What we know:
Elements: E1 9-10, E2 22-23, E3 35-41, E4 45-50, E5 53-58, H1 68-87, E6 92-96, H2 99-107, E7 113-116, H3 123-130, E8 139-140, H4 142-145, E9 152-153, E10 167-168, E11 177-178, E12 190-193, H5 200-209, E13 213-219, H6 227-233, E14 238-239, E15 246-250, E16 253-256, E17 265-269
Parallel strand pairs: 3-6, 6-7, 9-12, 10-11, 12-13
Antiparallel strand pairs: 1-2, 3-4, 4-5, 8-15, 13-17, 14-17, 15-16
Helix pairs in contact: 5-6
Organism: Meganyctiphanes norvegica (Northern krill)
Protein name: RNase H type-1 domain-containing protein
InterPro entries: Hepadnavirus_pol/RT, RNaseH-like_sf
Amino acid sequence: MEIFLFLWIRHSSPSSESGGMWIFSVPMSIPTPTLQLMTDASCSGWSEVLLPHKVVGVWPRHYSDQSSNWLELMAIYLSLRHFLPLLRGEGVLIMSDNTTAVEYCLLHSITPVPKHLCGALNVVADQESCRGVISTEWSLDVKTFQWISSQVDLFATHYNTHRPSFVSPFPDPLTLDFNALSLQWDVWDSLYLFPPVPLLHQIVPRLCQFKGRGVLIAPYYAQSAWFTPLLLRSPNPVPLPDFHLLSQVTNHGQVFHSNLAIFSLHMWRL
């Protein structure tokens, strides 16, 4: 596809004095994505991930007044510009957790296929742009985890998995597959799941149909819509031991959660 000889967005047009962004013409057919480009932006910086490559940048001071949507679009632009030599001739799936950026791309028929990636899953790009703790990426300590047996860790990254076999939220050469919610879980006999809480409303119905066994680490949130069906599937949840720890590796080193009581984490046997 010759479209990737061009950038789809620029700061200014050679024929325009007004500046601003403009779109190159694109072919009518949409290519099949062959590469996944993850982007994210925060108030302090931006990141781009085209595995195994990662790039992080800091915004100029005069960008501080720009909206979050503008920063997300700029992160996509900078990512495409930076990786252009690797993107030529490829179909690119742009994975962003900003719905406005995705809708903008779709509105203008931009050839790179934009896809909204739930913030709970946009892990690597989010971590690089924020350069700090991510609320969805806590991992159990080894001492607590060692008595949990399973074939595969369904919601992990190579940063926090305790299993050699794991499913990542994003494409990764070290993982079995990516995006656990798109897979058939019955290919495994036993599962380990410690997913982001916002995904539990999608996960619990899948677990109710799962034919195997496993362990889910999830909070005891009796007011949640997913709680009752989960309790039917696993009627005797066990609180995690008092000595359990949650940690994650950030750009500033390993960080431990300081208030575990707010989660009321339990082990739900399947």
